[in-house]
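Tokens in:
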């Protein structure tokens, strides 16, 4: 809680919408896109759009999907 609660200056997480933060938090819990879709009752395409938006806003260069997910979760934990 303390790690996630801290903010730093010019935090790229500030660019994320509330829904994107929710998706990122579920990614941090280890949920797949399918798991996120089921938990939030969204379409697969909507989840993919949120995930890709998170990657873009966190400035994560194209890489294998699993690597980008880990980097996004690390950004959340560092914030």
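Residues out:
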């Amino acid at each position: 809680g303390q790690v996630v609660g801290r903010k730093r200056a010019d935090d790229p997480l500030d660019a994320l919408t509330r829904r994107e933060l929710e998706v990122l938090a579920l990614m941090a819990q280890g949920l797949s896109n399918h798991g996120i879709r089921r938990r939030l009752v969204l379409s697969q395409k909507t989840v993919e759009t949120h995930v890709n938006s998170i990657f873009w806003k966190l400035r994560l260069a194209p890489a294998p999907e699993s690597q980008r997910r880990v980097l996004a979760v690390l950004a959340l934990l560092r914030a």
